Amino acid sequence: MNLLKSSPQSTRKCKVAVIGAGASGIATAKCLVEDGHEPTVFESSDQVGGVWVFENTSGRAFSTVHFQHSKYVSVFSDYPMSMESSEFPHHTEVLQYLNDYVDHFDIRKHIKFNTAVDKVCRKDDYWEVTVRIGDGQSTFKFDAVAVCSGIYNDARLPNFPGEEKFQGMIMHSKDYKEPSIFAGKNVLIVGNGPSGVDIAVTASYSSNKAIWSYRKNRWLLPRYCERIPFDFIVTRLNKHIPFRHQILSLVHIKKFYPIMLDHQACGVKPNVGPEKSGPVFNEDALNRIRLGAIKTKPNIAHFEENKVVFEDGSSELVDIVVYATGYQVNIPFMNEYLGEDHQKNLNLYKMVFPPELPNFGFIGFVYGNVIFPTSELQARWFSKVISGEVDLPSKAAMEEQIQAHRKHQEEGWLDSAYRSLRVSAFDYMDDIAKEINALPKVWENWTILKEIFAGPMMATQFRLNGPHKWEGATSWIKKVPKLVRK
User: Which of 276, 236, 237, 243 lies closest to 430 in space, CA to CA?
Assistant: First the structure.
């Protein structure tokens, strides 16, 4: 575990380029300002929010998108969402929250909007960042760079035989905004990640027929379990007990057994547990399948002029195909350093630091459902590293960790487009918190011992100790369980 250095001589203040003003970018800028650095945030669009922007070419939100997890565990550690917001906020509430965060911490003055990064280049002892503003280019010098452009860059599009013959509409979920386009149509949704589930359910209400195709079954869980947000089941106590997956299965058998039976009855029960495949949260999906409003199908075999044939030999007449098949990482301004393989495997120490690039970090390049607090912890660590307050291991040690983590990913997760970016969110956050000495200390927080160990894994726990403690952390951690159980 790295401990923060106490000597003032060991710290330095840096000019830092932050690329992207989505959730990861604004959190990074805020953390850098707290440590006395000077961030400049380059944002290619005209507003903050990244994927949470609706009706914008840079946004990925569509009309029915909500947080997968509750607002209590999904937001930044020292800035809770308003009491008036939904427990599982709509994308409009999330975007408002991000704007409120920027204004509350006075980050907007550090952002250059409508400014796209064309190239990042390493010089002798600094980084050179070339940006495009309209038709012109400008180049700036920085001590450090944080890439916060995220993993939702280029649409991942499958290529099935006969696609060129198909006379209907084919689109990616990034281009889908409103369900009105489905009216009177037979709609095929491909993919069962969060977007695929949401669009399939929406299409089941707004289309003539909703067909849902995917390769492997996945756990479809409700956001609530006995009127409590599902994510409250994951606590620090059950996270650290031996054989926790087996024990949790027994402890929560009463809660989970009906859900398992529902999957079985609908013919969509996965072959592995949710800890290996990653669940998707949606209250309505299983019910719509059970009612026949969503027709599930295996993977596509090929297209014909007006229909799609599936691997089991069945076929369906289709008017619209929506590929909810995810994205691939694309960082064109870093190709010189990352290589073409970076779309599949980013070579990063603990998912943040490339061993070969000094004073350089990737923030938010993980796949999980609590990206805001995860990115924030990464940003806090990055800021302390470039300050000189926390040291990184040797290059050899970092490379060794990268290979060990990659092996863990291959053994712990099913093969998927995002496997190389997957982390077990709460275990990972604990690991990063150790780097900055921000894990909650029992002996200093004994008055909220129950909430720390048996309460939800809120990021506010990482503001009880360590740098930039939040004075409201203890009271908020006490308050949340009471709010939820009212």
Answer: 236
CA distance 425 to 374: 7
pLDDT digits over 232-278, tens only? 877 887 766 554 444 444 445 445 656 666 777 677 777 666 666 67
Spatial distance between the Cα atoms of 363 and 55, rounded to a whole number of angstroms: 25
Indicate the residue type of 133: I
Residue 103: how many other CB atoms lie within 10 Å: 11
Question: 169 phi and psi, to 5 degrees?
Answer: -95, 135
349 contacts 402 by C-beta, under 8 angstroms: yes
- 363-398 residue pLDDT tens: 999 877 689 999 999 999 999 999 999 999 999 999
Q: Cβ–Cβ contacts within 10 Å for residue 482, how many?
A: 9
Cα angle value 369/382/356 (rounded, 5°): 105
Tell me the DSSP string of 265-280: HHT---SS-HHHH--E
User: Domains of the chain by range and CATH?
Assistant: 15-153+328-440 (3.50.50.60), 157-325 (3.50.50.60)
CB contact at 8 A, 231 and 458: no
* pLDDT tens per residue across span 191-236: 988 899 999 999 999 999 999 999 888 888 888 877 888 888 778 8
Structure tokens at 146: 């944080």
| DSSP helix/strand/coil, 54 | coil
Q: Which residues of 300-330 are buried (b: 16+ CB within 10 A; e: fewer)?
A: bbbbeeebbbbeeeeeeebbbbbbbbbbbbe
CA distance 467 to 32: 12
Q: Is the pLDDT assigned to residue 174 strictly greater than 50?
A: yes
* pLDDT band at residue 455 under the 50/70/90 scheme: confident
* CA–CA separation, 203 and 367 (whole Å): 26
Q: Is residue 121 within 8 Å of 128, Cβ to Cβ? A: yes
With tokens 């996270």, the residue in question is 239
What six digits make up the tokens of 33? 């300002």
Burial annotation 430-467 (CB, 10 A radius, 16+ → b, else e): bbbbebbbbbbeeeebeebeebbeebbbbbbbbbbbbb
- 8 Å CB contact between 308 and 321: yes
Give the total residue count for the chain. 486
Closest listed residue to residue 133, CA positions, set 26, 44, 29, 17: 44
Q: What are the two backbone dihedrals, phi and then psi, of residue 50, each rounded to the nearest 5 degrees?
A: 55, -125
